[in-house]
Write a structure and sequence with these properties.
single chain, 138 residues, mainly alpha, elongated
Length: 138
């Protein structure tokens, strides 16, 4: 098995469990803030399973940025598309966003904006850290 596939599954298994924990905390907060907040057992089960899968994919997808022989563009496209598909499916399955073209377009715009802002911040941080580290080596 390819070492990157192993890393994807390893990271997913290690960090996937944090998704349902965060979901539980969010549901706890919602139950304290929203009067009569309830979800059914099937809604809770679908949310827990889908969030675990989402967290698994999210953690595993970080491996795309570490494949040395890939260009930044290829890594970015694989990472972005993997996360976009995982988040979109999860949000639609849980009816957190309606399955309507207008809503999906809004979700896509917000997702892309946030993704590229975060990616830019991480990229610039890594670049600055590398520059400082290289300066210390001289």
């Amino acid at each position: 098995m390819n070492k990157y596939v192993k890393q994807f599954f390893h990271r997913g298994l290690v960090f996937g469990g944090f998704g349902p924990i965060i979901l539980g905390i969010i549901y706890l907060i919602l139950s304290k803030v929203i009067e009569n907040f309830t979800i059914s057992g099937s809604e809770a089960a679908i949310a827990i399973i889908s969030i675990y899968i989402l967290a698994f994919v999210h953690a595993g997808a970080s491996v795309f940025n570490q494949i040395d022989h890939w260009s930044i563009g290829k890594s970015l496209l694989c990472h972005l598309s993997t996360l976009y598909v995982a988040y979109s499916i999860c949000y639609v399955i849980n009816t957190w966003i309606p399955f309507e073209p207008k809503m999906l377009l809004i979700f896509t715009a917000v997702f892309m904006a946030i993704y590229f802002i975060v990616w830019g911040i991480v990229y610039l941080s890594v670049k600055a850290t590398s520059k400082n580290f290289n300066a210390k080596l001289k």
